[in-house]
Amino acid sequence: MLQTSCTFEVDWSDCDPATIVYNPNFYDWMERGVNAILDAAGYGIRSVMTRDPDFRGVPLVNAAATFHAPARFGDTLVRHSAITRLGRSSLDFEHRFYLADKLIVEASQTRVWSAVDPNDRDRIRSIPIPETVRAAFEAEKTVEIRTVREG
C-alpha cells in the first residue's frame, strides 16, 4: 500500500531543556505523515473538502506508540508512514521513526473517513472510503520527502 518517507531535522522547539524531543511531538509528526500520504494519493484534506464541503477528514480514533530511544536537538530523523489496513470506513496507519539505522519510535493509528452527519450537522460520522480513494491508497509506491524542518 501507499507509504511515505520523510527526512527531517529535530528543531530546538521540539525539545525539553535537556535537548530531548518531547514525546508528544512524535504525534504531531505522525499527523504530518498521515497528511503526506493523503497528499501523495491525490486526496489531501483541503482538496477533498473543496470538492465535498461535508467531508471532515480522517479523525483519529485510536493510537499507540512505543518509544525505544530518545531523539535530540539537531538529530536527523526519518519517518516512514504507511497505510497497513483499509476497512469499509476505517484505515490503519503505521509510523516508524529512525535515527540513522536505529528504530527509535514505532506507532500505529486507526482513523475513519468522515463527513457531516446529515441528521445533525453539528456532528460527524464515518462514511465508506470512496473506491477511487481506496484504489489510490492501494498503490504500491513510496513517496520520499526531504525537509530541513518538519512544518
Explained architecture:
The protein is of the alpha+beta class. 21% of the residues lie in helices and 44% in strands. It has three helices and eight strands, in the order βααββββββαβ. It has helices spanning 24-41, 45-51, 131-137; strands at residues 3-9, 60-67, 76-86, 90-99, 102-112, 114-117, 120-126, 142-149. The strands form two sheets. A six-stranded mixed sheet has the order 2-5-4-3-1-8, covered by helices on one side. The longest helix is centred in the first third of the chain and has 18 residues, at 24-41. 25% of the residues are buried. The model has no long low-confidence stretch (mean pLDDT 94).
**Percent helix range:** 10-25%
What does the overall shape look like? globular
Rg over CA atoms, rounded to whole Å, is 16 Å
The amount of beta strand, in percent, is: 35-45%
- Biggest β-sheet strands, sense, barrel: 6 strands, mixed
- What is the chain-wise order of helices and strands? EHHEEEEEEHE
Note poorly predicted spans. Answer: none
Mean pLDDT: 94
- Strand order, largest beta sheet: 2-5-4-3-1-8
Number of helices: 3
* Total number of beta strands: 8
- End-to-end separation in angstroms reads 25 Å
Structural class: alpha+beta
